[in-house]
Amino acid sequence: MRKTKKVIITCAPTGSIHTPSMSPHLPLTGDEIATAAIEAAEAGASILHLHARNEADGSPSPRAEDFMRFLPRIKQGTDAVINISTGGSATMSLDDRLEGAKAAQPEVCSLNMGPLIFDFSAAANRVESWQHGWERDYVETSRGRIMYNDNVYIERIMLEVGREFGTKFEFECYDIGHLYTLAHFADRGLIDPPFMIQGIFGILGGVGADVRNMAHMVSMADSLFGDDYIFSAFAAGRHQMDFCTQSVLLGGHARVGLEDSLFIGRGELAQSNAQQVRKLRGIVEALGREVATPAEARAMLGLKGGDQVAF
C-alpha cells in the first residue's frame, strides 16, 4: 500500500439504500445534494461520491438530468473531486447505471468488483411510517436482490467509461475475492495504477464488520498490488467511525456520509454529512495525520483534473 501522511476523506452524501422516511436529514433533491456535498467539502472531504435521486419522491435515479441538477453547482462551489456511482441501485440495468457517468465524464467513478447479495431489509424495522409508496417494498425486498456486476459488466465499465473518458475508479471491494478480480483486470492492462481500493464492510452479503477482515484485506492487497494502490475503507451503520479509524491507523484513507450511516453516535441521527466529515477529520488529526486537499488527492490518484469533465 502507498502510505502518506495525508488522508483522503471521501464523503457519500445520499446513496441509494436509505429512504426519505429513515431520516429528515438525508439529502434528496438536487438542491439538497448540492448543498450537502459543498458543506462536506468545506468540512474536509476531498472526494464526493455521488448518486442521484428523483425530485418527486426521493427514489434512486440513474438519469443524467437528475445528476445535472447538482453536478454543475458542486463544481462551482468546491474544487473537490467528483465521483459518480456506476453501482446505482440493484433495480437498475447496467445501461441505466452508466447514464450519469457517460454524461458527466467525471474524474472518478465507483466500480463494484463483483456481484453480491446486498440485503438491507433490516433497515425497515426502524421505520414507523413510510412517506412514499415505493419505500417499504424497495427496502424489504432487498433480501431477494443481487447487486449485479459480472466480469463482462466490469469490462464494459472499464472500457466505456475508463478508457473512453480517462476516468479513474474507486474499486469497491466487498470481499477478498473482489481483490482477485481487480488483479485479473490489472494483469490484462485494462486499468492502470495507482488503484484506489475501497474496502466495504458490514453489508449483509459481503465481508463482515470485523477489523480482522480489514487487516486481512490489506494484507492480500499488499500481496497482489504492492505499492500500486491506496486503501480506503468504510463500514455500514454503527461501525462507520470504528472502521474509518482503523483504516487510518493502517496508513489508509476513509469514507463517511449518510449513504453509509445515518447516525453520528449511538441512537443519534447525523444532522448533516458535514458533521460526519468533521468528526472523522478530528480523528485523523488526533492520530497525527493530515487531511488531504483535493489537489493532493488528485496527485495521489493520478486524476485527469476537474477541467476535463463534461459539466
From TrEMBL:
Its cofactor is Zn(2+). Transmembrane segments: none annotated. One of its GO terms (molecular function) is metal ion binding. The keyword Zinc applies. The keyword tRNA-binding does not apply. Signal peptide: none annotated. It holds the Pfam family BKACE. Keywords: Metal-binding, Transferase, Zinc. Gene3D superfamilies: Aldolase class I (3.20.20.70). This is 3-keto-5-aminohexanoate cleavage protein. The lineage of its organism: Bacteria, Pseudomonadati, Pseudomonadota, Alphaproteobacteria, Sphingomonadales.
